[in-house]
# Entry
Amino acid sequence: MKKLLRIKPKPEVFAGMGVVNTSVEEVVVFPVHKKIELKCIFQSCEGFKELELIENNLKKHFGTHFEFNFNLNFSKKDISDEETCVIIESAVKELKRESAFAKAYFSLYEYEIHNNILYFKLESQLGIQKLQANKFDEKLEITISKLISKKIQVKFINGDFSEEVKKVEEKSLAIQEEKLIKQEILVK
# Structure
């Protein structure tokens, strides 16, 4: 069995799926490890939305037995602040998709950029320590810096999310109360 298979797909294969902002330069299949890596170039931030479309179509053809990884590049060199935000959100989303650990600690976060330093405000100091110990800050630095063609440093800092947590708790209580009211109505 081959260790890997490299495929240079024709553009019309992905265009048929509705993919217009992303060009897939190469697909590398690792059959032994059950992984598929796609090397993609985005023409615009709309390409991030197309990744899910690509992945879903590939899962239909290959099944869920394979793990999909995306090696991403951005063709634009002058990236607006809005596009930078989309890139950051997409990088965090991808990190959360790859790691349940990251998903837990990035469930509630904010970020700010100052002087090429990206500050992620996170709810838990313990989470910050664990994310740093597992080098998630470095993973985000590499991914985001590569996509925006500018060196970005990532720092995790403790944030105050007491208001947000309070709102979620209030909403949860309201939903529970509504369910209880509906049950009481059904019982009567």
Observations:
- The chain has a mean pLDDT of 84.
- DSSP finds seven helices and seven strands in the chain.
- Helices lie at 11-15, 46-62, 81-98, 100-105, 125-133, 136-148, 162-187.
- The chain has two domains: 1-75, 77-164.
